[in-house]
């Protein structure tokens, strides 16, 4: 289940499987000012809507997921904005930009090229971009045996945890930026998987968090290094947060077209 808020055929926003929101987390406030929301103008409602999350990786480049940008493009939407307001509303400050979907993205459920950027018309002032990881950082940590037990901080604007209702689980969406902490689960050549089981005190992502960041560390040990972006997870946002690694060759090949990258 991809974790974004996407459009139905009539271009009204509904909460369905794309990127998801923060579950069992806390309001973010000013903790992660570099995390923002991807915004579009709904033709049917005449108002601005959140579709996904993302992060500032340079003063003019906003990182998100290709399944977010490609869906907007496939529905005839080319104008997008970004906001870094921790509580999105129709009066939030919006920054216009242009979408760049990864040309290698093929729109499959677990596409290894699900990464995109928005280039902003004007540089963002007063917000420090995230730090991107060096090449193979997570592989190096795995070889050193330091990934086990490592915690990661996820940030996003998506849905909160589901509550039971007569018709089934209902997710709450407020447009508020939130964060949650989960522990390392597993690593593949493309994906970082993070546990988000509430019964063990963890939280994670849900619909609307797609494209949002995972920062290495948590609490007093949290760093400004973003190691991945939210992509998919289980349907009820209770178990696993599956994230696209930014330290791999394919991720760095795409990002290198837009920003300078740290070395190995």
Shape: globular
Looking at CATH, the homologous superfamily of the largest domain is Trypsin-like serine proteases
Low-pLDDT runs: 6-21
Alpha-beta classification:
mainly beta
Percent strand equals 25-35%
Count of helical stretches: 3
Number of domains: 2
Q: Strand order within the widest sheet?
A: 10-13-14-17-16-15
Commentary on this structure:
- By secondary structure, this protein is mostly beta strands.
- The chain is 9% helix and 34% strand.
- It contains three helices and 17 strands.
- The strands form four sheets. Strands 10-13-14-17-16-15 form a six-stranded antiparallel beta barrel. The protein has a six-stranded antiparallel β-barrel with strand order 4-5-6-9-8-7. Strands 1-2 form a two-stranded antiparallel ribbon.
- The chain is globular, with a radius of gyration of 17 Å.
Describe the structure in brief.
The protein contains three helices and 17 strands. It is mostly beta strands.
Defining key terms:
globular; Thrombin, subunit H; single chain; 264 residues; 2 domains; six-stranded antiparallel barrel; mainly beta
Q: Topology of this structure?
A:
Layout lengths: L5 E2 L5 E2 L11 E2 L7 E8 L4 E12 L2 E4 L1 H9 L5 E4 L11 E7 L14 E5 L16 H8 L6 E6 L5 E2 L6 E2 L6 E10 L3 E5 L17 E4 L9 E8 L6 E6 L3 H7 L9
Antiparallel strand pairs: 1-2, 3-13, 4-5, 4-7, 5-6, 6-9, 7-8, 8-9, 10-13, 10-15, 11-12, 13-14, 14-17, 15-16, 16-17
């Amino acid at each position: 289940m991809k974790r974004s808020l996407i459009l139905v055929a009539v271009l009204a926003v509904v909460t369905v499987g794309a990127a998801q929101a923060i579950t069992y987390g806390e309001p973010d406030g000013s903790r992660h000012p570099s995390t923002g929301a991807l915004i579009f103008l709904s033709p049917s409602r005449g108002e601005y809507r959140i579709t996904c999350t993302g992060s500032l990786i340079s003063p003019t480049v906003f990182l998100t997921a290709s399944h977010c940008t490609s869906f907007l493009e496939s529905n005839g939407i080319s104008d997008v904005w970004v906001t870094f307001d921790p509580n999105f509303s129709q009066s939030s400050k919006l920054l216009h930009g242009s979408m760049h979907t990864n040309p290698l993205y093929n729109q499959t459920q677990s596409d290894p090229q699900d990464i995109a950027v928005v280039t902003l018309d004007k540089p963002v002032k007063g917000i420090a971009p995230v730090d991107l990881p060096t090449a193979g950082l997570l592989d190096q940590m795995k070889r050193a045996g330091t990934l086990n037990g490592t915690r990661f901080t996820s940030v996003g604007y998506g849905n909160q945890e589901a509550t039971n209702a007569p018709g089934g689980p209902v997710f709450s969406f407020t447009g508020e930026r939130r964060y949650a902490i989960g522990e390392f689960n597993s690593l593949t050549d493309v994906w970082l998987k993070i546990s988000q089981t509430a019964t063990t005190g963890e939280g994670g992502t849900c619909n609307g968090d797609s494209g949002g960041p995972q920062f290495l560390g948590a609490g007093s040990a949290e760093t400004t290094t973003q190691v991945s972006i939210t992509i998919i997870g289980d349907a009820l946002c209770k178990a696993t947060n599956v994230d696209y690694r930014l330290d791999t060759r394919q991720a760095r090949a795409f990002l290198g077209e837009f920003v300078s990258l740290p070395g190995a």
